[in-house]
Amino acid sequence: MRMALKLFKMDASPPVRAVYMVIEALKLPEVKYVETDLLNDDHLKDDFLKINPQHTIPHLTDGDFQLSDSHAIITYLINKYGNNSDLYPNDPQKRAMIDQKLHFDSGILYPALRENDEPIFFGTATSLKPGGVAKIKSAYDFTEKFLTGSKWLAGNKLTLADISCVATISTLNELLPIDEVTYPNICAWLNRCEEYEFYKKGNQPGLLEFRRLLKMYLALRSVFMAIEALELENVQMVDVNLFKGEHLREEYLKVNPQHTVPMLADNDFYIWDSGILFPSLRGTVEPVLFWGETSFRPENLAKIKKAYEFMEKFLTNSKPWLTGDEVTLADICCVSTLSSMHVVLPIDAEDYPNLASWMKLCALQQFYVAGNIPGLEQFERLVKQKLDT
Ligand SMILES: N[C@@H](CCC(=O)N[C@@H](CS)C(=O)NCC(=O)O)C(=O)O
């Protein structure tokens, strides 16, 4: 069989990843990939519009045959190259159940994703709107029900239904994390899907790319808007390729040990901002305080350790306080979070000497004694009580 398959793609796109997974599952050789960067408007260029007036990716070319829409593409690939694959069996009822879930992806899951991520990538949104969140939750509710008493979305075998929906649901999970307690079936199903080689090769890399873009757009957009609002001219934009580890190079770490983007350099003055402390505390205690878990998850404790490491570096400046010789709002703000973190994961003075002595210094201040201790003690009691139950 001579193939001349060409796929117009961008790795972060969920429907593109559904096609990748099928290509992997069928082990189709020699597919040619054409990068189509939506963020660069590649899909609106004349050549692409000629073959796909709807300007969506994925788009497949098989010789002279042109086909868009991931659901149409994956069923076509199985029909033509699948050798009666179990992913899309010929039995009319089995096939109908799979088709139903493909339409569920097209009609419910994917629109919920698009409504939420488009305003971030192509508009100015920096958070999800309540209406958008409600659509995602409703999509999760349906999926949870479909998976009650069934390992897979269309019967007792993995099929195209799972491949198509997992590309979208794993991406929705980046926008609105799927809570294990409310959605145990979805979480177990996601874990099952993640075990497959086609998922690891076809979905995981693009999902990470989606996560990177999402974070970058959320963080960068506010800075871009401020630059516009202040009508600042001559701002030089420097691309920092996180995948190539450019943020981990020595010269970058020297000025920004937290190695984040965006970072502004104003001559010798470097400034960046990335919420680390409170999100890692909240992420760790929330499952225990509100979701009935009885121990802290190791992956969350690892985030707290990372936060301690950053603090240790910030305090390696032979100055007693976070921003110099004087106590400032920076110390007050950070110590309220760090003292709570210390309840969850005690700060070891051997590992973090600077951090431990800064904590001691803070604890001696009147503002700490009067303003922090009563609430901190209450927090400690609450955490202990939940861990004991
Ligand atoms: N139902 C389509 C959705 C395709 C789609 O909307 N893809 C997005 C990227 S994830 C796109 O191409 N957006 C650009 C546009 O619509 O102009 C499918 O499954 O392929």
TrEMBL record:
What Gene3D superfamilies does the database record attribute to this sequence?
A: 1.20.1050.10, Glutaredoxin
Q: Which CDD domains match?
A: GST_C_Delta_Epsilon
What positions does the domain GST N-terminal occupy? Answer: 3-85
Q: Which GO terms describe its biological process?
A: glutathione metabolic process
Q: Name one GO molecular function term.
A: glutathione transferase activity
What does the subunit comment say?
Homodimer.
Q: Which family does it belong to?
A: Belongs to the GST superfamily.
Q: What is this protein called?
A: Uncharacterized protein
What is the scientific name of the source organism?
Answer: Spodoptera exigua
